[in-house]
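Residues determine shape. Next comes a sample protein:
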Amino acid sequence: MSNRNKLIDARGPRFGALITTLVLAGVLLTESLWLLIFQTVIFFIGAVFGPANSPYAMIYKKFIQSKLRSSLITEDSRPPQFAQGVGLMFALIALIGLYLELNLVFLISISFALFAAVLNAFFNFCLGCQMYLHIARITKQELK
């Protein structure tokens, strides 16, 4: 299987979304530039190197995955990787807004990222993944 179609444990991105939810909620509550930079780097790693290589995925693999009793469910890594890119975009906009004291820009951007993370963490609905699938259908990109 090529790197392009790599399969990952589908539960990993959901675990990552839970941590992301906590971090982004902390950013929203504290307006911490450093916490936002941290999460932006996490999004960057997931977007560039794939969701299986993000620090949150490493935590999942080391401490959580082996303790789960449910069957392994795999998914194509491309939709979650695209979702990390979407998260990166919102985090970068929020970072610029926070740094330049553009409070509305910061608030809207971080709220969108937090909303998407909550949807994935608590409802197993990956908004960025759905965007990827719709774009792939529109452009008739191979999904298999």
